[in-house]
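Lecture 7, part B: from sequences to assemblies.

Below are the input chains for today's worked example.
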Amino acid sequence: MNGCDVRLEGVRYAYGAREALRGVSLRIGAGEQVALVGPNGAGKTTLTRLLVALRRPGAGRVTVGDWEVAHKRPDEMAQRVGYVFQHADHQLFARSIRDDVVFGPRRLGRSEALVPGVLEEMGLAAAAGLHPYDVPAPLRKLVALAGVLAMEPCVLVLDEPTAGLDRVQRDRVVSALQRRAEAGVTVLAVSHDLGFVAEVAARVVVMGDGRIVADRPARELLYDREALAALGLRPPPTVEISGALGLRGSPVRTTEVVAVMGGIRWKQMPE
Amino acid sequence: MTALVVLERVTFTYAGAVRPALADVSLEIAAGDVMAVTGESGAGTSTLLLVATGFAPRVVGGTLAGTRRIAARRCGVVFARPWTQLTGLCSTVRDEVAFGPASLGLPRATVLAAARNAMETLHIEQLAGREPSHLSGGELQRVMVAAALAMRPDVLALDDPAAELDPEAADALYDVLPVVAAAGTGVLLATPDSERAGRVATRAVALASGRIVAEGSPAEVLTDTEVARIARAAGCPPPYPWDVPSLLRRVER
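Predicted structure of the full complex, as structure tokens:
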């Protein structure tokens, strides 16, 4: 499914007296993959919730494609935007993993044909008959993502999709997002995991204290050690390795780094 | 060092479960330890924390076989989902952190000092007046660690304590653990983050299907890092380097 663009113009939001968003303007192009990073409390989650009408801005305008989010309810926004909460427990309620994943497309009146494939993609096929709360929390996170993918949204919004996952699960999420990116889905992922950002995002937007403080191509920012340090971030392992070995072409993804490392001769044992 | 918890061939099974979540686990936790516990999701890392601190089966039910001796007077646990631990009774972070020591019946001045010290240790003094239910996930995770620390536990068990944290806050939290351990606490740290754990842990165990499959120094056990995976994919022969300096030492120049 083709992506929609997402726009925020002069958006403000406050929790009581505390301003969480202080005038945010951002455009994410249709089919673009953007990571949203920044310290805890910067306003990242608040921003994402505006995109699905879970919160209404105090000022400013939010649009997804030609839809004004202000005129939509959360269930209407689900037609276009798939939202994966940071904590899967906020969005799981059915009695089996399969029922949970089927719920979205059924609710939207769409085909359920994708469900088996999505369960397989997330490594959940064998567990599909289990109650979501009978599997470990990281697996529930994959159930929530599967439920959203089964709806074929044109925009995917994910809040810390890899937090708490082991490496196999994390690889599944990375592959799933890379496939959706190739299919032209717009992706906005909040993440502290720059290794994950390197795999899935072409552009990185950095928030701080309710504002956007940087907005750069991922490949450029991930190699800018000084800029990262100023943001309290370290380069991902791929970039650390690339820098240490002087690899060509600024690779950021694991596959890119491994490909460039092809000519290396290894010592058999450490000194 | 004094053993605070001793597990000898312990097997633990949750109520209604067919297979045990922990099988034949022997482990000793002493004051001063920062023990990293690693394993894939479902390997039993969270269960080991609950068993070692006495919360399983006492609180969560299930059956325990084997020998367990807990010499620690007080064990603190911070779960991977910190919001489940909010008291729901406190309107400020300061009160939330003070709730534990207050519930022990300590004098007011001692309670306030314990809460203040714990908040300083976790660098969350600026959150003291905030409403706990309005905190971000990362802020709340630090508040819950402070709340556990304020009770001055002999054993502090942390389940993926940086899952919600930004990298700077995660580094800061991990840096606190050796300090806490040096003050005489045994720290148990379940985490998928081998890189950070490797920097602070004194010992490590790896679990798979509820069993200990590796035990030793962090360098021996915490080998499943991103750097190791990349080195393996790029054709490096084992043992795989776990960080960038060790990778550089393996490259023929």
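Note for the exam: Chain B is about 35% helix and 25% strand. Keep this in mind when comparing with the next example.
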